[in-house]
Amino acid sequence: MAQVSLSLMATLATLLDMVGSTPRPRHPEKAARAETPSLPKPNWLRVRAPGSPGYDETRAIVRDQRLHTVCEEAACPNIGDCWQKRHATMMIMGGVCTRACAFCNVATGLPSALDPDEPNRVGNAVAKLALEHIVVTSVDRDDLDDGGAAHFAATIRAIRAASPQTTIEVLTPDFLRKDGALETVIEARPDVFNHNLETVPGLYLKIRPGARYFHSLRLLQRAKEIDASIFTKSGMMLGLGETREEVLQVMDDLRSAGVDFLTIGQYLQPTRKHAEVKRYVPPEEFDGMEQAGRAKGFLLVAASPLTRSSFHAGDDFRRLKAAYLERLSP
Ligand code: SF4
Hints:
12 strands; alpha/beta; 8-stranded mixed sheet; binds iron/sulfur cluster; two-stranded antiparallel ribbon; 330 residues; 12 helices
C-alpha cells in the first residue's frame, strides 16, 4: 500500500511555496528556532497516498476556481480520503495568515487585499463539486477591520445562490478585538458555526499565542445566544502535553457555552520547527474521550487519531441533526 506521511506532505507544501520568482519561507518567524524532537509515528496514523479519479477532479475544480483549501495548506493527512469523495474545505481570504500558531502549517506573513470575486468562485466550486455540505474556513485576518467577517457572510450568500441545497459550515477565526464581526457572520445564517479551541487553556501561550482561551469560548457561547437554531461546534488536538483532566475541563467549559458538537484528533507536527508531539494518543483513549464527551451532554462527539474539524463533516452534520431531533422527541 502506498503510504505518505504528514511531514512529507508538509515538506512538499513548503517546497512548492518556495517555487517562483521570490522564494519565501512559509514560516519566517520560526526560521531561527531550534528543531524539536520527533517521535516515531505509530501505524494507526499511516494513510494512503492521495491519488484517485475523484481526487484529480476535486483538484482540477479547486485549481480552476483559483481557491485555497485547508486540506492542502495544513497538509492534512486525510486529503486522499476526502478529495476522493470531492470533499474539500475551502480556505478563504488568501493563503497567508496574520497569526503564527505553533501547531499550524498555513503560511504566515502579511496577506494580500481581499479578492471580492472569491465568494462567487467558492459558490461555483461548491456547485461543481455537487456538495451536500461544505466547510468554509479562513486564515486569520487581524489586518482587516472586521477580521474578514463580511467576506465570510458574502461567501455564505454566494454558496446559497449557487447551490441552495448545500448546508454550510463555517470554521472561523476568533475575531479578537473585532466588535460586531461575529454578528455579521451569524446574520448570514450558516448551518453550523465552528470555532476551534485547539488545546487546553494552560497551553495557549505556547501553542496559540495570539489567541485567548476565554475569548474563544465566549465567541462560541455568543454565537448560540444570537441564534440558537445554528449548531455550534469546536475542536481540539491531543498530544501537545495536555492532561486528561484538562481535556475533561475543556469539555465542561464547552458544554457551559452551549456547544453541540466536539471533534478531537491527534496533533501532528507539520515541521521540526513547530511544536513537538509529546505523545501519540492510542485510538482506545480517543474512544474513552468520545464516551466522556457524550456523557457530558454534547449532541455529537467525533474523536479518533485522524479526526479533524472537517473530516466527514457532511455525515456528521446528518448525525448532528438526527441527535438533535432525538433529544427533542418525548
Ligand atoms: S479532514 Fe478536512 S482539511 Fe483534512 S482533507 Fe478532509 S476536508 Fe480537508
